[in-house]
Specification:
This protein has about 475 residues and is α/β, with parallel strands linked by helices. Helix content is about 40%, strand content about 20%. The chain has 2 domains: about 110 residues, Urease, subunit C, domain 1 (Roll), CATH 2.30.40.10; about 300 residues, Metal-dependent hydrolases (TIM Barrel). It is built from 15 helices and 18 strands.
C-alpha cells in the first residue's frame, strides 16, 4: 500500500550493494529522510509498514544499488539518433550541425529531445546527468528553459552545462583577445546560469567552454572567473581526437600546458574524453586533481582513440563515465558504457592483469561520477543522497553469483524497476509516473520525419568529394603523426 509520504521512506532490500567496492548484503532496511539516506540496518523481524508518515518500498525480492551517474551527455543529439556511420569526429561534427540548422528546433522540439534523453537515462538506472548543450550558434534561453522544464518533469538530478566558444577549429590555437560577439555570448551564459539557478534544487548550472582549442585565452579566463564568482563546476571536451592532440599555440604550447597556464585544470573541473595524453600529462591531471569523464562507446564509434583508463586509475585520477550523445554512443544507457569500458582495450592489451575490471567500471559509473560532479552520492550510506536504483529479478540477472560482474557484463537496463532521486520515486514498475510515454513516442515519430527531410535537404548541399578527400587525408596524417612517440 502506498500512502502520501512527503519526506520519510523505508526500503526493504533483499539484496543490497552499497557501493562498487563493498560486499553484497542481504536483508537490509534503508531509512530515508529529507532526501538523504538516514541509516542502513539489518532487516528487523517485523519490518515497518506504510503509514501516513512514511512510505515503504518492498524490494525484498529485488536488487538495490546506488543510482548511476552520466557525467557527460548531449540531449539534443537524440534528434539524430544513429543517423551516421563510418565517419570520424571531424566529419561527423559539420554534418550534425548542418542538419540541426535545417531542422531549426523550437521549444517543444527541444523539450521532446530532453524528455527522450532523460527518460532513457532514468529507465537505465541513471539518477544524475550532466547535459553539455552543444547546439550551433549562440546560447538560446528558450533551450535552457526546455532543459530545466524537462529535468523537473522527469525528475533526474541534472547539471545543465551550456557549451560556449569564441573561435573555430585551427591548426594553431588562437590566443588573441575575444571579440565583442564573444563578450555578448558570455553575457548570455550569465543569463542562462541565472535561469538555471532559479529552477528546482535538483538542477544546477555548470560553466562549460566547448573545448580549449575553440576558445581564446581571454575567453577561457573569463569562463574560469565566472565559475569562481558563482561557485560552479567547470566542464569541457578535452583532447578527444588526434587532431586536437596535435594542436599547439603560436608559442608551441600543448593543450595541457596551456590549460595549466590558464588555470583550467583544477579539482572542480571535469574533462570529457581526455583520450590522447602522455605519461607526463597524466601526471599533471593527477597533480591538479581534475576528473576525467570516459566516453567509451563514443570514442569507439567515431574512431577517436583508446583512452588510457588503466594508467589514470593507477595514478588515482578520478574517472567517471559518460554516454556522450544519441548519434555518437547512440544511446544514454550507462550499462552500455560500463560494459564497453571494461572490454574496450582487451584485444589490444596482451597483459590481462591490466584489464579494467567490472568493479572498477561500476565505481566509475557511481562514486567516480559523483566525485566528478561534487556530489555526496554514488553509494548507499548514511548522509548520502537517496539516489537509488532497484532492479527486479529476471533473465538478465539470473543467477548473478557475482553481482558487480552481472551488472556490468549481463545487465542492459531492462531489469530496472524503481528509481529514487533525492528520496522521491521517479520510476515505478519500469514506467515514469510523470510523463505520457505514448504521447512522447508520437512526438518522436514526427521528429524522425522532419529529421529525414532535413537530411535529404542537406544531401543536396553535401561536402564535395574533393573536400571529403582532403579531410580524409588530414585524418590519415593525424593518425600517422599520433602513432609517433610523444614526450
Amino acid at each position: 500500500m502506498r500512502l502520501a509520504a512527503p519526506d520519510a521512506k523505508s526500503i526493504l532490500a533483499g539484496t543490497l550493494l552499497t557501493s562498487a567496492s563493498e560486499p553484497v548484503l542481504k536483508d537490509r532496511l534503508i531509512r530515508i529522510r529529507g532526501g538523504l539516506i538516514e541509516s542502513v540496518e539489518p532487516m528487523p523481524a517485523a519490518p515497518p509498514e506504510a503509514s501516513n508518515e512514511a512510505q515503504v518500498i518492498d524490494a525484498r525480492d529485488k536488487v538495490v544499488i546506488p543510482g548511476l551517474v552520466n557525467a557527460h551527455c548531449h540531449h539534443t543529439e537524440a534528434f539524430q539518433r544513429s543517423l551516421r556511420d563510418r565517419v570520424p569526429f571531424e566529419l561527423w561534427l559539420p554534418e550534425r550541425r548542418a542538419i540541426e540548422d535545417i531542422l531549426d528546433p523550437g521549444y517543444e522540439d527541444l523539450l521532446a529531445a530532453n524528455h527522450i534523453a532523460l527518460l532513457e537515462n532514468l529507465k537505465h538506472g541513471t539518477t544524475t546527468v550532466l547535459h553539455h548543450l552543444s547546439r550551433r550558434g549562440a546560447i538560446d534561453l528558450q533551450e535552457i528553459r526546455a532543459c530545466i522544464d524537462a529535468a523537473e518533469r522527469i525528475g533526474l538530478r541534472t547539471f545543465i552545462a551550456p557549451s560556449v566558444a569564441d573561435a573555430g577549429w585551427h591548426h594553431v590555437v588562437p590566443a588573441h583577445e575575444m571579440s565583442a560577439a564573444a563578450r555578448e555570448e558570455l553575457d548570455r551564459l550569465g543569463q542562462a546560469l541565472e535561469l538555471v539557478a532559479a529552477g528546482p534544487a535538483t538542477v544546477k548550472g555548470v560553466v562549460a567552454p566547448s573545448s580549449p582549442h575553440t576558445c581564446t585565452d581571454d575567453f577561457l579566463s573569463r569562463c574560469l572567473a565566472m565559475a569562481e564568482e558563482r561557485d560552479l563546476l567547470m566542464h569541457t571536451h578535452f583532447l578527444e581526437t588526434r587532431a586536437e592532440a596535435m594542436q599547439r599555440t603560436g608559442t608551441g604550447e600543448t593543450t595541457v600546458e596551456r590549460a595549466v597556464r590558464l588555470g583550467l585544470l583544477r579539482s572542480d573541473t571535469s574533462l570529457a574524453h581526455a583520450v590522447h595524453l602522455t605519461d607526463r600529462e597524466l601526471d599533471v591531471l593527477k597533480e591538479n586533481q581534475s576528473a576525467v569523464v570516459h566516453n567509451p562507446c563514443s570514442n569507439a564509434k567515431l574512431g577517436s582513440g583508446l583512452a588510457r583508463i588503466r594508467e589514470m586509475l593507477d595514478r588515482g585520477i578520478t574517472v567517471a563515465l559518460g554516454s556522450d550523445g544519441g548519434d555518437t554512443s547512440d544511446g544514454y544507457s550507462m550499462f552500455d558504457q560500463m560494459k564497453m569500458a571494461a572490454v574496450m582495450r582487451r584485444c589490444s592489451e596482451p597483459d590481462f592483469n591490466t584489464w579494467i575490471t567490472a568493479t572498477e567500471c561500476l565505481a566509475m559509473a557511481t562514486t567516480g561520477g559523483a566525485q566528478a560532479l561534487g556530489l555526496r552520492a554514488g553509494r548507499i550510506a548514511p548522509g548520502h543522497l537517496a539516489d537509488i536504483c532497484i532492479l527486479k529479478p529476471g533473465t538478465r540477472m539470473w543467477p548473478a553469483a557475482d553481482l558487480a560482474q552481472a551488472l556490468v557484463y549481463s545487465e542492459n537496463g531492462s531489469s530496472v524497476d524503481t528509481m529514487l532521486v533525492g528520496g522521491d520515486v521517479v520510476l515505478e514498475n519500469g514506467e515514469s509516473p510523470r510523463i505520457d510515454e505514448a504521447a512522447l513516442g508520437r512526438q518522436a515519430g514526427e521528429l524522425a520525419e522532419r529529421v529525414e527531410r532535413a537530411r535529404s535537404e542537406r544531401a543536396a548541399h553535401k561536402l564535395t568529394p574533393e573536400i571529403a578527400d582532403r579531410l580524409q587525408a588530414a585524418e590519415l596524417e593525424y593518425r600517422e603523426a599520433a602513432s609517433m612517440p610523444r614526450k
